[in-house]
Amino acid sequence: METRAPFVVVGAFVLAAIAAVFGFVYWLHNTSGLGPRASYHVQFEGSVPGLLVGAAVLFNGIRVGEVTELGLAPDNPRRVNATILVASTTPVRPDTKVGLEFQGLTGVPVIALEGGTLVANTGAVATLVAEPGAGQGMTQAARDALRKVDSVLTENAGVLKDTIANFKVFSEGLARNTGKLDGIVSGLERMTGATTPPPKITYDLSALQNPGPVGKAINVQWAIPEPTAVAMLETQRFLFSPAQDYPGFSEAMWADALPKLIQARLIESFENYDIAHAPLRVADIGQTDFQVLIDVRRFRIAVDSRPAAEIGLSARIVDKNGKVVASRLFDESESFEKVAPAEAAAAFSNAFGRIAKDMIAWAVPAL
Fold first, then answer.
1. Per-residue confidence at 29, pLDDT binned at 50, 70, 90?
2. Per-domain residue ranges for the chain?
3. Cys-Cys link to 265, which of 13, 207, 276, 332 (CB 3.0-4.6 A)?
4. Alpha-carbon distances, residue 72 vs 39, 136, 311 (angstroms)
5. DSSP 3-state of 25
6. Quick one: DSSP state of residue 283?
7. What does pLDDT average to over the chain?
8. Average pLDDT over residues 263-278
9. Average pLDDT for residues 41-53, to the nearest whole number?
């Protein structure tokens, strides 16, 4: 007896553990616990692909029960009857909507209940009728839609063919009469007084052509990056101080945005001084020994009294360690007689030429 007692205890413990596991699994699967349940019959018109006994029942997305029975209606071959068991506290009403949802990557079907507008329970609900097509999946819906499209195309094949043929004839007619259409449009413009905008006239900034004889040789690798400027100066338009409109300047524009144009003409001026040791753009080379950093402060036409082209630049020579070797401000202005684009561009070139000459005389010894 003494040797058998431990086996009885062990066996009882194992049975209790197995019962506990089954009980836990049942409780986990049945989210409404062991409380009171209510049973409802659900009618589906059409197929319910993949729905099984034990499938979950959701109410507004919350699991409230499961499917307990599935079967075909004997009096209607298109109907599927289901019995669901849900928590008695679930607010099922006569206007509760019933559908079929597919969850997860594998598309597991569940019965989805959606609350209606009735708040109070007006009586026992014996049967819930699903909406037509509630069991239709995405694949089947796509097939039905394509079937309808195919049917429409088949019924109207002749009309579509004639329409495409008419479009072809129309496009060929347009191609043959393009010249005539241009004439018609031009005539309409003349008749309505519409005018095409005048073409843009581009002006360039002249570099310093004769900087003088080469003095000190530059034996370092250096560059002039694109100058910095406020947003107002990032433009190709002629700027005025004070700002106003003058005839002819709406069609006038510089050959490039002002910072890029100044960079290009400064590099060209240094090339005219010493082509063998001229600066490059930073994008053209890697690490350089020195950089001349330019900031555009002014590039405008002053019209307070006599019109004048004003240019203001600040320059710094910085070594590869970021140390400022030299710095200087360059300001020049050039008066002109008539406020016109050609005269203004010539005045800017003259003022820029003096700045370029002073910058060469300043930068070469510092490098």
1. low
2. 30-138, 156-192, 202-366
3. 207
4. 18, 17, 92
5. helix
6. G
7. 82
8. 89
9. 83
Sorted by sequence, the CB contacts under 8 Å of residue 356 that are 6+ apart come out as 207, 208, 211, 265, 266, 269
User: Exposed (0-12), middle (13-18) or buried (19+): which is 332, by Cβ within 10 Å?
Assistant: buried
Across residues 260-264, what is the average pLDDT?
93
Sequence-ordered list of residues with C-beta below 8 angstroms from that of 220, at least 6 positions apart, any chain: 289, 290, 367
How far is the C-alpha of 296 from the C-alpha of 224, rounded, in Å?
13
Both tokens of 322, joined, read: 């970021």
Closest CA to 97 of 120, 114, 111: 114
What angle, 0 to 180 degrees and rounded to 10, lies between the N-to-C axes of helices 258-273 and 341-366?
60
pLDDT value at residue 159: 81
Angle between helices 138-155 and 157-176 (to 10 degrees): 70
Q: Do residues 45 and 132 lie in contact, with contact meaning Cβ atoms separated by under 8 Å?
A: yes
User: What are the tokens at 325?
Assistant: 């070797």
Q: What separation in angstroms does the CA of 39 have from each of 42, 62, 71, 117, 317?
A: 10, 17, 16, 21, 88
3-state DSSP assignment of residue 269: helix
Bridge partners, 314 (sequence order): 295, 329
Give CATH superfamily name and number for 202-366.
Answer: ABC-type transport auxiliary lipoprotein component (3.40.50.10610)
Amino acid at 281: R
The two beta strands, 37-45 and 79-87, are antiparallel
Which pair of tokens denotes residue 106?
A: 């594998």
10 Å Cβ neighbour count for 62? 11
Phi/psi at 272 (nearest 5 deg)?
-70, -25
> In sequence order, which residues have a C-beta less than 8 Å from that of residue 32 and are 6 or more positions away?
64, 65, 86, 87
